[in-house]
Amino acid sequence: MSDPVKTSLLTLDARTKKRNAAETRFRMYGLAAIGAGLAMLVLLLVTIFGNGLGAFQQTFVTLNVPLLESKLDKKGERDLAKIKKVSTFGYAQLLSQAMEDALAENGIDSDLKAKKQAALLSKSAAADLRNFVISNTDKIGETVEFTFLANSRVDGYLKNRVTRESIADDKSINAEQLDLVDELVAAGVIKKRFNISFITGADASDQRPEAAGMGVAMMGSFFMMLVVLALALPIGVAASIYLEEFAPKNWITDIIEVNISNLAAVPSIVFGILGLAVFINYMHLPQSAPLVGGLVLTLMTLPTIIISTRASLKSVPPSIRDAALGVGASKMQSVFHHVLPLAAPGILTGTIIGLAQALGETAPLLLIGMIGFIASNAPDSVASGLLDPNSAMPAQIYEWAKRADPAFYERAWGGIIILLAFLITMNTIAVLLRRRFERRW
Amino acid sequence: MSAFWLTITVLILSAFGAYAGRAQSLRVAGGDARKLHSLPKYYSSFVALGVLIPCLFVLVIWLFAQPKLIERGAEQMLNASSEPSLVMSDVRRVADGLGVAVAQGALSETEAHAPIENLRDVLGGVGVALGNEVTPDVLSAAQGMRAQEQRGNQFRMFAVLGLAALTLVFGLSRITPEFRARNAVERVVLALLITAASLAILTTVGIVLSMIFETRNFFGLHSWKDFFFGVKWAPNFRGDSELSILPLLWGTIYISLIALLVSVPIGLFAAIYLSEYAGPKTRGVAKPLLEILAGIPTIVYGLFALLTIGPLLLNTFGSGGLLGVEWMSGATAVLTAGLVMGIMLIPFVSSLSDDIINAVPQAMRDGSLGLGATKSETIRQVVIPAALPGIVGAILLAASRAIGETMIVVLGAGAIAKFSANPLDAMTTITTRIVSQLTGDGDFASPETLVAFALGLTLFVLTLGLNIIALYIVRKYREQYE
Q1: Which of A142, A357, B85, B301 sits in a 20 to 30 Å window from A302, CA-based?
Q2: pTM for this one?
Q3: Per CATH, domain A215-437 is 1.20.1300.10
Q4: Residues B243, B157: one domain?
Q5: ipTM of this predicted complex?
Q6: Residue numbers in B near A423 (CB within 8 A)
Q7: B292 touches chain A (CB under 8 A)
Q8: What are A147's strand-pairing partners?
C-alpha cells in the first residue's frame, strides 16, 4: 500500500492550480471578446470622425472681382437677355483679372500663367459669378468682393490630403501652384472655414468635389420617411391590433404570424427587387422617386413596427380590458379607448426605431434607381418632393464612395456623420420616450 | 376632373356625410340622443365611412385598370409592328406630350385631335423630346389613346360622384333610432384591421410572384442547367453569356464563413461574459455599447471596408507591404468584406446568445457549482451544452444575415466571379451581382438583366430556409425549459 498523498487546504495542489488557471483564462477570453467588440466600435467611430470632419470645413478664396461693363454689358443697356449671352468664358477672364489684382495687392510675384492661377478656384466659380451678375445687374461696373470655393486640390492641400509628393502625376495642379497657395494663405486671401453648403447644398458633378453637398439628398430622405411614416405606422398598428386583440387562433393567423417574423429577416435587397418589379415595371411609378423608395421602405419597416407594437399591446394587462368590458364598452371601444392609448409610447418607440432603420437602408434604393445622377435642385413642393427624381442620404454616400476622386471620400465620410447624427437623435428620442413613459404594471 | 380633385371632392362629401349623419340621427330621435341605439358620433362615422370606402375603392381600381385597358386597345389598333413594347412607349410619350402641349397652350384641344404636321417641334417646344420621327400610325394611336383617356376620366368622374351621392343618400336613409350604427361601424373597422394584417401576406406573395414570373422568363431565354450547374459567370452583350450561380454562391458562402469566424467567437464569448461574469454595472455599459454596432447602417460598414480595412490589408499583404509578400493585388477582397461583415454581426450573435444563455435554468448552474465545478467548467460542461441548440439557431440567423448582406460586399468584395480558396482574392456574391445586373443599362428583357431575378429568388429561398430552420430550433429549445 502506498502512502496517501499529503494534501493541505492551505496549499493548492497542481490540479487545482490548473483548474483555477483555466478559470482565469476563460474569464479573460470573455473580457477580450468584449474588448475586441468595443475596440471595433472605437476604430469605426475614430475612422468616421477622423475622415469625415474635414468635409465640414472648406477652403475659400476671397477676391475683389471687377465687374467690368466693357465685358459684361458693352452698351450699358442692362438688358438681361444680352447679359445672359455672356458665357462663363467671359466671366473666367474677370476671375483671372481679379486673381492678378489680388497677387499685386499682396505683393506676390508669380511666374505662373493667368490660367494656372485661376485654376486654384473651383470650376464652378465662373458660373457662380455669372449667376450673381444675372440676379444683380445693378452691380455691373462696380468691384465686388466675392468668396469663391477653392479647387478641391487646394482644399486637399490645406487639409493635408494632397501633398507635394502625391501630386507628381496630377495634371490638375503642380508644385508652383502650391507655392502660390502657400503665399496666398499667408496673405489671408485663401482661408479655411466652416462650410454650411455641405449640409444644405446639392450634389455636384464629379469635376467639382468641393461644391458637393448633402442637402438635396436629405430632402429625398425626408420625403421617403414621410411616406414610410404615413403608411407604415397606421397599417402596422392596425395589423398588430387585429393580430393581438381580435384574431381567432387558427391556421390563417398562424400563417400571418410566421410570415411577419420571416419578412423581418428577408434581405433588404429582395425588397428592392420587389419594388423594381411591382412599383416601377408593373405600376409605372416614376423611377428614382422618393415615393417609390418610401413604398419599398414601408414594406421593409412594417414587420419591425408590427413586432414592437404587438409587444407593447401585449404588455397592457388584461385587467384594463376587463374593466372596460365590465362597464359596458364594446371590444372595439376597449381596444381603441383604453388599450391603445396605454400602448402608445411603446408603439411610438418602435416606430422611431423602424424609421431609423429605414433611413440608413441603401440596398433597395440602388435597385429603384436612386443613384447615378446628380440631384441638383431641391424640390419646391410636396408633389415634386415625392415624384421628382432625387437621391437619399445613404444612396448619396454610396454615390460619392464610387467616384474616382479621393476628395469625394471625405464627402462620403462627412455624409456618414450627418446620417449618424440623425440616427443618434432618433434613437435617443426613442430611448427617452421609453424611459419617460414606460410603465410597470 | 383629375384624380386628386376627385379624391378631395369625395373627402368633402364624406365630411358632409359625417355632419349630416349626426344631424339626421338627432332628428329621428327627436333631439334626444338617449333614444338612439348608438351614440350620435357612430351614426356620423357610419355615413362618412359608407361614402369614403366604396368611392376610394372604385377610384383606385379605376386608376389601375383604365391605363391597362386603354393600352391594350391601342396595341390592338397598331397590331402590326415587330416591337410592340417600343412602339407602345412611343405612343405613350406622344400622348403624354400632347397633354402637356395642351396644358401649356401650345396646342388647342381641337388641334390636338387633328393630324399634326410638325409634331416633333411642337412637342419639343413644350419640353417633350421625341426620339425618332412620329409615324401617322403612332400619332393616330396616341390621339385615340388620349381621346379614350379623356372619355374614361369623364366616366370616372360620373361614376365616382354618382356612387358618392348614392351611398350618401343610402347611409342617411338607414338612420333610425333602432339602427345599430356602432355595430356596423365596428364591423367596418374590423374589416380594415384584417386588410392591414393581410398586407404582410400580400407582400410575401408579391415578392414571390414578381420574382417567379421574371425567373420563368429568364429560364425561357437561358438554360436552367447552365444557371444551376454551370461553372462560369461571364455576362456579355453578344448573347452567349454564361450565367451560372455556382461561382457567386461560392463567393457568398466564403465571405459569410469568414464573417461567422469573426463574429461567432467574439459574440459568443462576449455573451458568456456578459451573462455569467459581468456585474449589472458592466453589463449596463457594455451591452448597449456593443449594440451600437448593430444600429450603424450597412453603407457605413461598406465604406469602412472599402476605404479603411481594404487598404489596411493591402498594406499588410500587398506588394511593398509590411510582410513583404505579394498575396493581395487590390483593396477589395473576400477577407476585407468578411472581416467587416463579422464586425457587423458581433452584436447580432452576442445579443441572441445572451438571451439564450439567460434562458438556461439557474438550477442547472447551481447543481454543477454545488458538485465543486469552477464557473468556467460549469459554463463549458453544463450551460453551453444545454444552450447549444439555441446557439446553433442564433448562428444560422447570423448566417442568413451574412448571405443577404449587400452594401458591404458591393463596396468591399470586388466584382470577379471565380472559384478560389485564397481569401485575399477579390470575389463576388449573389447580392453584388443582383445590384450590378439591375443597375446597368441593359435591356430589361435580356437574360443578363433577368438573371438578377433568378438570383434574387435563390437568395430569398436560401435565407428563408435558414430562417425557418433557425426559428424552429430556437422555439423548440425555448419550449424545453419553459
Answers
A1: B301
A2: 0.87
A3: no
A4: no
A5: 0.89
A6: 295-297
A7: yes
A8: A62
